[in-house]
Design brief:
Blueprint (H helix, E strand, L loop, with lengths): L3 H9 L3 H19 L5 H4 L4 H14 L11 H23 L17 H19 L3 H12 L4 H8 L4 H19 L7
Helix pairs in contact: 1-2, 2-4, 2-5, 4-5, 6-9, 7-8, 7-9, 8-9
C-alpha cells in the first residue's frame, strides 16, 4: 500500500485508481469507528455501511481541496465526515413520523430513551471537546484511541519526531478531554 501522500499526489494528477486505493485503505478503519454509533432510531433506514460509504464518498468529492498535513490527516478528515453523516442520519430519523401502535405489555430491551438521550448528549459534548484540542492532539488522539493505532504507527502517521512525542500528544489530549468532560451531567 502506498502512503496517503503518494495516493493524494496521484489523485491530483487525475488517477482514479488512486482514489479507489485510498478509499479501500480507509474503509475498514472507518467501519470499526462507526460501528454502534448510529442511533437506534436511524438503524432501520440506513446501516453503518451506508453511513461510512456516504461519508467516504463525500470526502472523496472534496479531496482536491484537502491539504495533507501528516499521513493520518486524511483518515481524521474522513472520520469527521462519518460523524457528520451520523448526525445527519439522526436528524433525518427524528423528523420521520412513527406510525405504529405500541403494545404496553412488551418489555423494552436495550438502552432506555433517557439513556439513549444521555448517550447522544455526551457524544455531542465529546465531539465539541475534541474540536477544542489542538489539531495535532486531536489527530494523535483519534488515531490512537478511536482507530486503535499503536504509538509507533501514530507517530509515523502524524510525523512525530519520536514514539514518545506521539505518546505525549495522546496523553495531553486525554487530560484535556478528561477536564472538559469531568463535570458532565445530562440536562433535564
Amino acid at each position: 500500500m502506498e502512503t496517503t501522500a503518494v495516493l493524494l499526489h496521484r489523485i491530483a494528477q487525475g488517477d482514479e485508481r488512486a482514489k479507489s486505493e485510498l478509499a479501500n485503505a480507509c474503509l475498514p478503519v472507518l467501519r470499526r469507528f462507526a460501528h454502534g454509533r448510529l442511533p437506534r432510531s436511524a438503524r432501520g433506514i440506513v446501516t453503518t455501511e451506508d453511513v461510512v460509504f456516504a461519508a467516504l464518498q463525500r470526502s472523496m468529492k472534496e479531496i482536491e481541496r484537502f491539504s495533507l498535513r501528516h499521513e493520518g490527516s486524511f483518515l481524521s478528515y474522513a472520520r469527521t465526515a462519518v460523524v457528520n453523516e451520523i448526525i445527519d442520519q439522526s436528524r433525518r430519523a427524528k423528523s420521520r413520523p412513527v406510525g405504529s401502535e405500541v403494545d404496553e405489555n412488551v418489555v423494552a430491551l436495550g438502552t432506555s430513551p433517557v439513556g439513549e438521550a444521555m448517550g447522544h448528549e455526551f457524544m455531542a459534548r465529546y465531539e465539541n471537546a475534541l474540536q477544542r484540542l489542538t489539531p495535532e492532539q486531536r489527530e494523535a488522539f483519534v488515531l490512537r484511541m478511536e482507530f486503535g493505532y499503536s504509538h509507533q504507527k501514530t507517530a509515523d502517521a502524524i510525523g512525530a519526531p519520536s514514539v514518545d512525542a506521539a505518546r505525549m500528544l495522546v496523553r495531553r489530549a486525554i487530560e484535556r478531554l478528561k477536564d472538559e468532560l469531568r463535570d458532565f451531567e445530562p440536562e433535564d
